[in-house]
């Protein structure tokens, strides 16, 4: 058979997947695969990576293998493909032997177009025996950064995937990931033995996501306030320990928020229950450790919160990237406390001293610098990934509400005097208590209520002084000694300021939630009927529950917004809406057309 043409690929994109045109980068990758070339594809989460192999899979004779470490994502993608009328299946450890044999039969008899596999499955001898009976047309390795020790999620089982090249020397191999710095990209090409690959490096920018960092003052209150402002939208809250997952879930539940916790200590069945409830919009929020979310294909996550600091910029970027996959406005909120860095640093230093630890130390330092930066957040992220830009983004906390500077010398002297006079052996909260003149037992026991510095800062609240102290730590004037219960100590650099010999400019402490929280992005300007959108979402949820699939598999939010804007009333008009393919029109179209007609009749 002659090489399939790009016009065939375009008609599959339109008729099967319901999209009017390819996104940036997709067409050139698909053309390369159809010319039998290897590919390295770096496209940000939500940027349409999966279509880069799903469209060629339908153009070519035979079956496409997709290797993914994410069992939840396999199921999700297969459900989505089946809804679009495409024969797809997966093989992984959740299936019985009988179920696996049934899938293998289908693959060998040529019934399947796509087969999803875990890397562990590919390592077995049985796999090579079974796959030799199938006609393979393409092999796609998803989350390919896992093959590199420079990647943020190195998985040893991925290293054996290089063997696929020996077994299938003439089949195109495609490696895909959302995040990979230059060292990781070179590793992927070498370890997977990609042959002069067509490399597509998309932009790492997600303009629809607003990046905000807030210092932790009263973290639970700050979190609850933020989630309540979301008014029932879907979100993920990441935190550093199982214990914290459980206590935050409890706190949010008591405030009437529909929430469930998720961590590695739960049984497989418990985790599946949480995931299903979230996918199906039965709950609003999942509070989770990083065990959750790789492979969450849910397109309408409107916010991601990091309650604790992540370990690297890659992890942060990947986790925040789970918000706004439908290109609609979304928020990424990080609550930051320098003590979080101290704790992660302590954990890291307990690991054996080797190359891997050095890499992790470097990554930990860069996320700390990001959290403490006074520069546009997006510029810091993009420049980290080698996408060099200088123009501020106008959609992060630094751009929307730039830090205001003031002459902070007197405040700094008050803090440093209190540290000095209490003996440089007390932590942040004790120093703040002395400055504010608190009469607590610990202060009395140490006679700190008798000091000249006692109460010299009582005109300012606790959050104000915490912010000043943290800035002095960032500026290197105070050291927080982790080895001695995080006690505050003056550094040599503090002397000239203590004596008043040098000026000192500080940022005005930011107390509470930043004022600019309305989402202003290019995607928010759609002029659609909000009431109709709400009714379409309700219909979608009813259909999804009846069909036993997540709502976004019926249609995603962006598709429903387009319907609410262009109000299609015929089958042809409905096919013009992005995300409505022929199979979905057959299955779901009439109900949505009817609802739109009823809505317009009521308005008339």
TrEMBL record:
Pfam families with a match to the protein in the record: DEAD, Helicase_C, HRDC, RecQ_Zn_bind, RQC
Per the record, the gene is recQ
Domain Helicase ATP-binding residues, every copy: 30-198
What is this protein's function? An ATP-dependent DNA helicase which unwinds DNA in a 3'-5' direction. Plays a role in recombination.
Does this entry carry the keyword Magnesium? no
Cofactor(s) it depends on:
Mg(2+); Zn(2+)
Q: Give any Gene Ontology cellular component.
A: cytoplasm
Entry's Gene Ontology BP terms = DNA recombination; DNA repair; DNA replication; SOS response
| UniProt source species | Phocoenobacter uteri
Task: Report whether Nucleotide-binding shows up as a keyword of the record.
Answer: yes
Q: Which family does it belong to?
A: Belongs to the helicase family. RecQ subfamily.
- Boundaries of every HRDC domain copy: 526-604
Q: Where is the Helicase C-terminal domain?
A: 219-371
Q: What is this protein called?
A: DNA helicase RecQ
Quote the catalytic activity from the record: Couples ATP hydrolysis with the unwinding of duplex DNA by translocating in the 3'-5' direction; ATP + H2O = ADP + phosphate + H(+)
């Amino acid at each position: 058979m002659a090489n399939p043409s790009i016009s065939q690929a375009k008609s599959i994109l339109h008729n099967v997947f319901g999209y009017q045109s390819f996104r940036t980068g997709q067409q050139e990758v698909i053309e390369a695969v159809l010319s039998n070339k290897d590919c390295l594809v770096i496209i940000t989460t939500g940027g349409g990576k999966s279509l880069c192999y799903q469209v060629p899979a339908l153009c070519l004779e035979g079956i496409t293998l997709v290797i993914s470490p994410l069992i939840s994502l396999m199921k999700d993608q297969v459900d989505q493909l089946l809804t679009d009328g495409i024969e797809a299946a997966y093989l992984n450890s959740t299936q019985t032997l009988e179920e696996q044999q049934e899938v293998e039969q289908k693959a060998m008899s040529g019934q399947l177009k796509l087969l999803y596999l875990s890397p562990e499955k590919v390592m077995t001898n049985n796999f090579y025996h079974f796959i030799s009976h199938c006609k393979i047309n393409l092999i796609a390795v998803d989350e390919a950064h896992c093959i590199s020790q420079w990647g943020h999620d190195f998985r040893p089982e991925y290293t054996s995937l290089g063997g696929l090249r020996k077994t299938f020397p003439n089949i195109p191999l495609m490696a895909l990931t959302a995040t990979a710095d230059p060292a990781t990209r070179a590793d992927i090409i070498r370890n997977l033995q990609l042959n002069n690959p067509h490399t597509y490096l998309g932009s790492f920018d997600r303009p629809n996501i607003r990046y905000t960092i807030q210092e932790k003052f009263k973290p639970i209150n700050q979190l609850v306030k933020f989630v309540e402002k979301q008014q029932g939208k879907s979100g993920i809250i990441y935190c550093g320990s199982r214990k914290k997952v459980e206590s935050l879930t409890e706190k949010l539940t008591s405030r009437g928020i529909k929430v469930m916790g998720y961590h590695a200590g739960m049984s497989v069945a418990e985790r599946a229950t949480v995931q299903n409830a979230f996918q199906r919009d039965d709950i609003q929020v999942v509070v989770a450790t990083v065990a959750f979310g790789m492979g969450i294909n849910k397109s309408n996550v409107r916010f991601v919160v990091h309650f604790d600091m992540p370990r690297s910029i890659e992890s942060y970027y990947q986790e925040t990237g789970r918000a706004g996959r439908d290109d609609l406005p979304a928020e990424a909120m990080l609550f930051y406390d320098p003590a979080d860095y101290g704790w992660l640093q302590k954990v890291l230093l307990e690991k054996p001293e080797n190359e891997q630890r050095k890499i992790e130390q470097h990554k930990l330092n860069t996320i700390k610098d990001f959290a403490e930066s006074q520069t546009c957040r997006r510029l810091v992220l993009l420049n980290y990934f080698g996408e060099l830009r200088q123009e501020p983004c106008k959609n992060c906390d630094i751009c929307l509400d730039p830090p205001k500077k003031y002459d902070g010398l007197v405040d700094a002297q008050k803090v440093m005097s209190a540290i000095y006079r209490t003996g440089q052996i007390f932590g942040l909260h004790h120093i703040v208590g002395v400055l504010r003149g608190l009469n607590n037992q610990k202060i009395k026991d140490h006679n700190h209520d008798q000091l000249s510095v006692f109460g010299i800062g009582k005109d300012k609240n606790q959050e104000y002084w915490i912010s000043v102290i943290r800035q002095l730590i960032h500026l290197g004037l105070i050291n927080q000694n982790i080895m001695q219960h995080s006690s505050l100590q003056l550094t040599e650099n503090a002397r000239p300021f203590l004596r008043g010999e040098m000026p000192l400019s500080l940022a005005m402490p930011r107390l509470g939630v930043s004022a600019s929280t309305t989402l202003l992005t290019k995607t928010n300007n759609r002029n659609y009927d909000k009431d109709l959108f709400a009714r379409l979402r309700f219909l979608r949820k009813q259909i999804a529950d009846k069909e036993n699939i997540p709502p976004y598999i019926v249609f995603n939010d962006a598709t429903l917004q387009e319907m609410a804007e262009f109000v299609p009333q015929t089958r042809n008009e409905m096919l013009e809406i992005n995300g409505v393919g022929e199979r979905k029109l057959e299955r779901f179209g009439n109900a949505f057309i009817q609802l739109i007609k009823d809505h317009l009749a009521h308005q008339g």
